[in-house]
Specification:
It comes from Sediminicurvatus halobius. Belongs to the EcnA/EcnB lipoprotein family. The chain has two helices and no strands. It is an all-alpha fold. The chain has one domain. It starts with a helix and ends with a helix.
Length: about 40
C-alpha cells in the first residue's frame, strides 16, 4: 500500500509539472483519475 501511494504521488507530481495547456491538463487529470481507479480496485 505504501509503495502504491508513493507511486501515485510521483505520478501526480509529474502530471502537474507536465500540463502546459488546458488540453494537456485534461489528459493529466484523466490519467490521474485512472490511476486512482486502478489503485482502488487493488
Amino acid at each position: 500500500m505504501l509503495r502504491a501511494s508513493i507511486a501515485f504521488l510521483m505520478l501526480l507530481i509529474v502530471a502537474i509539472q507536465g500540463c502546459n495547456t488546458m488540453e494537456g491538463m485534461g489528459k493529466d487529470i484523466e490519467s490521474t483519475g485512472q490511476a486512482i481507479e486502478e489503485e482502488a480496485s487493488d
